[in-house]
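Researcher: Let's do a round of design. I'm pasting the structure tokens now; please hold your answer until I've finished.
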């Protein structure tokens, strides 16, 4: 077996629309909208600079069935660069970009697209023409595929590759040799699938980890799940995650794996970040902070720490303040959070516009999930008016009808504002629960302060 190096990427989602950016200034919005293209271009550059033998992409190159010409053209330019450097690309299409006749594209030499009717198998070679691996893959024909595609992959892919060659279907560039002395090559399976089920994800092309292990392949190059994860080693079963995070639930570094395979078939994986915009979802504990100034200083410190970690990337942060604090009512009643955001954002815009700095850290929202510095459980157990208040809130949180009756009574003054009334009517249960919980805590804190002052 010959040693070789390849890149495993998936879920590029090029030209993703990035909904919900209305609050971003235009300069930052443009950086976000260009980020999936930038990640693709960084992938191409990595393949060239790291002396990669070939690249595999495990589905969802595009964000939707109807590819924009912009997305197709940017991908085409990258493929042409790889082709010019003699680096083949082996790719499948997934649920976001199913392969059908209306979306065919003429890729340059060296780009192999696996069809959707059944698995296809090809031999991939090193850049010197020596055989490296045998690759099997299958694209989606429709947006929703519930068949177990993995079960259709050949058990002996070398034989399937020989059959492909015998009918003139050979992928990649023409090479001098395609046979390994013992007939066994490193086996790679490209698969856009859900392994062992995933909460919050459609169960497309479902299969089990055990099934993939028993199939006899050396590396399953998976796509579909955007969380980077190595499910198993020897054989490797790998989700590289997407190349660029697209919202606050896709946090942390995003990119692809560089995989080195030695002459004994042993693989080592190195993750390489490709994202130009990074999302963070952070919680800050404010329990021990004595005043509002301390909270603002903590926010400044943390934002600058995240700037250093981002390595010249734009960072979009959703912050949540947590913990029991004597500052609870002040945080609720003052404009501290809004004032801090406005001040911080003005500073960041100045860094971008005057100095061209790209390591911007931008808060996309701050949520207050802290609580008053009191023992709510003690009040709940007490035979007192505050105890009745807590128990009433508990009961209303368990019964949506009672909760809505309370809210309707409290917000009755807004009935004369049609637009506001419409907005209130469509708020989801979790938001309504937050309103009720916050009202209970504010009332409880006020009652407690009245007792202390009496």
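Researcher: That's everything. Go ahead.
Model: Designed sequence:
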């Amino acid at each position: 077996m010959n040693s070789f190096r390849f890149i495993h990427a998936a879920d590029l989602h090029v030209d993703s629309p990035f909904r919900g950016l209305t609050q971003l200034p235009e300069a930052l919005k443009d950086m976000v909208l260009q980020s999936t293209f930038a990640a693709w271009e960084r992938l191409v550059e990595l393949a060239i600079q790291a002396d990669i033998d070939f690249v595999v992409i495990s589905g969802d190159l595009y964000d939707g069935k109807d590819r924009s010409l912009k997305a197709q053209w940017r991908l085409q330019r990258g493929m042409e660069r790889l082709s010019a450097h003699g680096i083949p690309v082996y790719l499948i299409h997934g649920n976001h970009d199913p392969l059908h006749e209306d979306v065919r594209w003429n890729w340059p030499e060296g780009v192999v697209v696996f069809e959707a009717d059944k698995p296809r198998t090809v031999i991939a070679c090193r850049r010197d023409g020596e055989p490296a691996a045998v690759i099997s893959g299958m694209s989606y024909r429709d947006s929703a595929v519930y068949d177990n595609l993995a079960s259709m992959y050949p058990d002996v892919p070398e034989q399937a590759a020989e059959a492909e060659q015998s009918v003139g279907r050979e992928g990649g560039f023409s090479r001098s040799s395609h046979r390994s002395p013992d007939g066994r090559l490193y086996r790679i399976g490209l698969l856009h699938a859900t392994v062992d089920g995933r909460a919050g994800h459609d169960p497309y092309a479902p299969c089990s980890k055990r099934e993939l292990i028993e199939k006899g392949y050396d590396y399953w190059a998976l796509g579909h799940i955007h969380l980077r994860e190595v499910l198993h080693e020897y054989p490797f079963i790998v989700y590289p995650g997407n190349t660029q995070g697209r919202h606050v639930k896709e946090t942390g570094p995003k990119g692809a794996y560089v995989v080195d395979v030695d002459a004994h078939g042993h693989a080592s994986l190195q993750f390489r970040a490709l994202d130009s915009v990074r999302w963070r979802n952070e919680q800050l504990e404010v329990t021990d902070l004595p005043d509002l100034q301390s909270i603002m200083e903590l926010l400044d410190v943390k934002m600058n720490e995240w700037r250093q970690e981002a390595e010249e990337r734009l960072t979009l942060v959703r912050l949540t303040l947590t913990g029991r604090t004597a500052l609870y009512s002040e945080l609720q009643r003052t404009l501290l959070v809004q004032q801090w955001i406005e001040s911080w954002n003005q500073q960041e815009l100045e860094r971008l516009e005057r100095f061209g700095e790209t390591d911007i850290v931008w808060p996309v929202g701050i949520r207050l999930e802290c609580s008053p510095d009191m023992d709510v459980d003690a009040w709940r157990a007490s035979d007192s008016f505050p105890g009745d208040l807590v128990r009433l809130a508990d009961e209303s949180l368990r019964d949506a009808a009672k909760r809505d009756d309370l809210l309707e009574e409290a917000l009755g003054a807004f009935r004369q504002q049609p637009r506001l009334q419409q907005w209130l009517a469509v708020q989801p249960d979790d938001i309504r629960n937050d309103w009720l919980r916050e009202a209970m805590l504010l009332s409880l804190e006020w009652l407690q302060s009245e007792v202390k002052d009496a």
